Structure formats: structure tokens, C-alpha cells
Amino acid sequence: MNSAVAMEATRRRTQPSPNGKTSKEEEQPAQWGRAWEVDWFSLISVIGLLCFAPFIVFYFVMACDQYQCSISQPLFDLYRGETTLLSIWSRSPSFTWSAAKIYAIWVAFQVFLYMLVPDAVHKFIPGYVGGVQDGARTPAGLINKYEINGLQCWLITHALWIANAHYFHWFSPTIIFDNWIPLMWCANILGYTVSSFAFIKAYLFPTNSEDCKFTGNIFYNYMMGIEFNPRIGKWFDFKLFFNGRPGIVAWTLINLSYMAKQQELYGHVTNSMILVNVLQAIYVLDFFWNEAWYLKTIDICHDHFGWYLGWGDCVWLPYLYTLQGLYLVYHPVQLSNGHALAVLLLGLIGYYIFRSTNHQKDLFRRTEGSCSIWGRKPTYIECLYRSADGGVHRSKLLTTGFWGVARHFNYTGDLMGSLAYCAACGFGHILPYFYIVYMTILLVHRCVRDEHRCSSKYGRDWKRYTDAVPYRLIPGVF
């Protein structure tokens, strides 16, 4: 879930003239990230999300807890008068202090690893980039530094989880599943607390006032964020911590807890559960292996930190991105060998496209075009843009390799992987397919939003780029 910023200013961009000299011409106000003004449709959408998104999460989890993962049965029961909203609510596990203690220990441990254990993994694993790294230039022209230690946090956390399961036995491996709904209330408390703190902080003591963006609409400001990079002290960056920790570190632990519960209930683990664990673990490990690269993505480069990221990373991500494993606890599916192989291939091919596409862009940026992509020298469109501090900067937009196939072909690979997670659950229920529906909406919306931002940022140069690479996701279709 996502947004971004700068000071409002009319941008002047240096354009080459036919005789090789330059002339300055006025452009539209830069629209990096989130909007400066809010129309009625956006306002209604924002209020709708603030009001209903928490209930969407509750609905899916409740459907599994009370209706064996049927998302239509609760609605039919309500329509026929066989149940009421109050009775559904009363049957759901409530907040517990034991869940609060578990969640507080979890978050505190991740803060400890993030803040107080500097990365050492990059010293021992060839090719891994960790330690202190520069982020992308903010709209105000600043470059923040980050402590990249996500892979180390993931390894330490999972090593302790495995050691507990096999040796220490401090807690049951099913602890997450057993407290799933009470933990959801704790996650909501953290999500709203962090979002509200970031909102108040932006008004009273922003980290950098030049990277704040106010619309005059309190609901939009709260949801999409005001500050670009809210921080406490020098190193605790809200955006990097909550985007990567604690939600994504927990993702694979949640799946392991589901696997343990399936083993406890049925005496075996299905191949579908193993597939979900493996494919999603590949995605999570890829995220942390490339955490330094993640500093250059839309989440960090163009989104402000508000409820959209704060609550989304605490609640939406861990609860809805793991629906496949939750479903398989209630409906264990043993796939045929052919079905399992097809799902595995779809997931691996999707991952290959996703990773290769991102690698091509990263290689191109690191070498400033002095590289080979698909055995040829890369082609690109060179663009100029002006940041809010008045500096003129150059960007090169790649038009070769996968980036010549479609402008967001990495998203295409991501969607293939997302479909594989869902297909691993068979075709008995629609609930595990929520993820591919949501990811399609999210990534198509992100395509449109990113291209609107780029069009504003690069002006005519963006038109040259879209002429060279006409499709967004699927060549010949979209």
C-alpha cells in the first residue's frame, strides 16, 4: 500500500534545441507521489478505505474461523436471518493480554535487531549488499542513509524459531495460528498508533519540513501521509522498518506456523502447503537479499508514510498475504504431481521474470549503461528533470531487455508468482484467490499512478519513452 512528495513549485526543465543549445521552458507542477489537491472521488475512496479496510481483513479471517473459509456463507446466513452481525462478532476471539505480550515481544525484538545489530552478513556472503547504504534522492533533493540489515534480521529470527521448535520448546510452533485473531487486534492497535503518531509528528516536529506534503484535507493527509521519511533519531526510519519489518519477516513464520498446525491436526503436511511455503519464502528472501535495491523502488522513493503504509504493513500484509496457508489449514489439499509441477513452474518462471527484469534495471543504473543486456548494448531514453531544490538531474529510461517488452514487466512476473500461490490451493474455494485479484488491482493502479508521476516529472521525454515501449504489462494487450 503506497504514496510521495516535494515542495510545490513550477518546474523548469532544460530541453535540447535543434541547434544543440538549451532553452528553458515551463512545465506543470511536479506531481511526485501523492496528490497536492484532493477531488471528491479521491476523498470518498480514502474515507471508504479508512472505514472498511479493517473489516475486510476481519471478514476473511472470520470466514475461515467460523465458516470453513467460505466467503459467501456469512452473507447468505445474514440475508436469511440465520445469524446477525452481533453474533458473528461475539463468536470471534477477542483481544487477550497473552496475545498482546506475544506481539509486544515480537515487535520489540524486531526493533532491537533493526536498530542495535549492525549488518555483518554482507562481510561473509559474496554479492549481498548490506550495511549503510544511500537511498534515492528525495523530492527536496536530500539523500538519506539507511542501515540495511533485513536479511540478517530474517536469518536470526528464523534460526531462533527453528532452534525453539527442535531444542528449546519455549513455545509451540503453532503459537501464531493459535492466537491469530487476538494478534490481529494487537496489529490493528500498532497500525493505528504508528499512523497517528506519524500524522501528528508531521505537524509538530517533522524530520524534514521540505519533504512534507499537505493537501488541506485531514483524511487524505492521514491516510496517504505527510512526511516523506519520518524518522526518530538518525537511523530509525519508519518507512523502511514497517515496510520490511515486522510484517515481511513474519510472513514466512506465519506460514511455518500454518504448516505446524496442519501437521498437528492431520498428522501430515500436504504438498500444497509445502509449495506455498517454498514459493512465498523465495519472494521474502528475494526482498531481503535486494533490500538495498528496494531503496530505489516506488515504496521508498515516492510514497509518504501514513495510514496506507503504517496500518497496511502491520495488518493488511501479514493477514491477507498469507491467506493461502490459512486456507490450507482448514482445507488441506494434496495436489496431483502434474498440478504441483505446473504450480511450481509458474511460480519459478514468474520469479525469474520478476528478478531478471529488476536485475536488468539495477545493472543498467549501476554501470550507467556500460553493460550488456541480452547480449547487446542497452538502448535508452535520456530524460532531464528538476527537483524541488532547483537542481537539474538526468535519468535514463531503459528500452531493451525485458524493459523493451513492457514498461512494467517486473509486475507481470510478480503477478505470475501471485497466481501460483493461489493455484496451489486447488479450486474448491474462491478465498485463496483474493490475493491475485488484489495484486492485479494494486499493480495496475501502481502502473497508472507511477506513469502519471513520470509523465509529470519527465514531460515530453516520457512521451518519447512510451512511444518506444508502448505496452505496460502484457505485450499486445495492455
Automatic annotation (TrEMBL):
<keyword id="KW-1133">Transmembrane helix</keyword>
<protein>
    <recommendedName>
        <fullName>7-dehydrocholesterol reductase</fullName>
        <ecNumber>1.3.1.21</ecNumber>
    </recommendedName>
</protein>
<feature type="transmembrane region" description="Helical">
    <location>
        <begin position="40"/>
        <end position="61"/>
    </location>
</feature>
<keyword id="KW-0812">Transmembrane</keyword>
<comment type="similarity">
    <text>Belongs to the ERG4/ERG24 family.</text>
</comment>
<feature type="transmembrane region" description="Helical">
    <location>
        <begin position="95"/>
        <end position="117"/>
    </location>
</feature>
<feature type="transmembrane region" description="Helical">
    <location>
        <begin position="265"/>
        <end position="285"/>
    </location>
</feature>
<keyword id="KW-0756">Sterol biosynthesis</keyword>
<feature type="transmembrane region" description="Helical">
    <location>
        <begin position="418"/>
        <end position="444"/>
    </location>
</feature>
<dbReference type="GO" id="GO:0005789">
    <property type="term" value="C:endoplasmic reticulum membrane"/>
</dbReference>
<dbReference type="InterPro" id="IPR018083">
    <property type="entry name" value="Sterol_reductase_CS"/>
</dbReference>
<keyword id="KW-1207">Sterol metabolism</keyword>
<keyword id="KW-0444">Lipid biosynthesis</keyword>
<dbReference type="InterPro" id="IPR001171">
    <property type="entry name" value="ERG24_DHCR-like"/>
</dbReference>
<comment type="pathway">
    <text>Steroid biosynthesis; cholesterol biosynthesis.</text>
</comment>
<feature type="region of interest" description="Disordered">
    <location>
        <begin position="1"/>
        <end position="30"/>
    </location>
</feature>
<keyword id="KW-0443">Lipid metabolism</keyword>
<keyword id="KW-0472">Membrane</keyword>
<feature type="transmembrane region" description="Helical">
    <location>
        <begin position="305"/>
        <end position="323"/>
    </location>
</feature>
<keyword id="KW-0521">NADP</keyword>
<keyword id="KW-0152">Cholesterol biosynthesis</keyword>
<dbReference type="GO" id="GO:0047598">
    <property type="term" value="F:7-dehydrocholesterol reductase activity"/>
</dbReference>
<keyword id="KW-0753">Steroid metabolism</keyword>
<feature type="transmembrane region" description="Helical">
    <location>
        <begin position="180"/>
        <end position="200"/>
    </location>
</feature>
<feature type="transmembrane region" description="Helical">
    <location>
        <begin position="335"/>
        <end position="354"/>
    </location>
</feature>
<comment type="function">
    <text>Catalyzes the last step of the cholesterol synthesis pathway, which transforms cholesta-5,7-dien-3beta-ol (7-dehydrocholesterol,7-DHC) into cholesterol by reducing the C7-C8 double bond of its sterol core. Can also metabolize cholesta-5,7,24-trien-3beta-ol (7-dehydrodemosterol, 7-DHD) to desmosterol, which is then metabolized by the Delta(24)-sterol reductase (DHCR24) to cholesterol.</text>
</comment>
<dbReference type="Pfam" id="PF01222">
    <property type="entry name" value="ERG4_ERG24"/>
</dbReference>
<dbReference type="GO" id="GO:0006695">
    <property type="term" value="P:cholesterol biosynthetic process"/>
</dbReference>
<keyword id="KW-0256">Endoplasmic reticulum</keyword>
<keyword id="KW-0153">Cholesterol metabolism</keyword>
<keyword id="KW-0560">Oxidoreductase</keyword>
<dbReference type="GO" id="GO:0016132">
    <property type="term" value="P:brassinosteroid biosynthetic process"/>
</dbReference>
<keyword id="KW-0752">Steroid biosynthesis</keyword>
